[in-house]
Amino acid sequence: MDKYEAVIKLLMDAVKSESGSDELTIPVGVSNRHVHLSQEDLDTLFGKGYELTNMKELSQPGQYACKEMVTVCGPKGAIEKVRILGPVRKQTQVEILAADCFKLGRNTTPEMSGELAGTPGITLVGPKGTVETKEGLIIAQRHIHMSPADALKFGVHDGETVKIETEGIRGGIFNNVAIRVTETSALECHLDTEEANAMGLSGSSKITIVK
User: Fold this and answer.
1) Which is an annotated GO molecular function term of this record (predicted)?
2) Domain boundaries, given as residue ranges, for the chain
3) CATH fold label, 23-28+142-210
């Protein structure tokens, strides 16, 4: 064990001692298909200078579900009423479920949010216009948001991939769960609805990192 690992172990032991439990759990956030829009694409879809309507605050600070929705169209089919999440971003990003690829007729792969180079494009239809993106269609890679203090507590670092485990009749282990550490992150494991359903999880569930 090197010096860094020894320090992490001491800190984790202190946290466990203080909490009175060896179990360090992380709340689950279940995510359905959704869209993040750039201001340019928002203007095209809803009209010049349009501002998104905050309908509900999300668990991650500064992010919210919007009243507005769009239709996502592929070569073989379309999915209506796909929720937009705010605020606007530099680049439009469309996050779908794996099964949606069959309905849309457009294949994509799990990617981290914002890592859009080389991803396929898709067509979005709004009340005022249509946008054909050159890239930005992804299946969200499962990940855990946490602050630097959380990362220290769990003994992980930004960009690391870990295994997570959940109990219950459909419980099990997910591999390849990315750690995302920022100063403003709230502790939460993000899974899409297909992943959550596979393990019988909901927004009230908790997971643990497997060491």
Assistant:
1) metal ion binding
2) 23-28+142-210, 32-140
3) Barwin-like endoglucanases (2.40.40)
Q: Determine phi and psi for 74, rounding to 5 degrees.
A: -120, -175
Instruction: Read off the pTM.
Output: 0.86
Residue-wise pLDDT tens digits, 61-118: 999 999 999 999 999 999 999 999 999 999 999 999 999 999 999 999 999 999 999 9
DSSP 169: T
For the range 160-169, what are the long-range contacts, defined as Cβ-Cβ under 8 Å and sequence gap of 24 or more? 162/209, 162/210, 163/209, 163/210, 164/26, 164/189, 164/207, 164/208, 164/209, 164/210, 165/207, 165/208, 165/209, 165/210, 166/199, 166/201, 166/205, 166/206, 166/207, 166/208, 168/199, 168/200, 168/201, 169/200
By three-state DSSP, how is residue 14 classified? helix
Contacts of 30 (CB under 8 A, 6+ apart): 191, 192, 193, 196, 201, 202, 203
- First-last CA distance in the chain: 15
Q: How many CA atoms lie within 13 A of 25 on its CB side?
A: 11
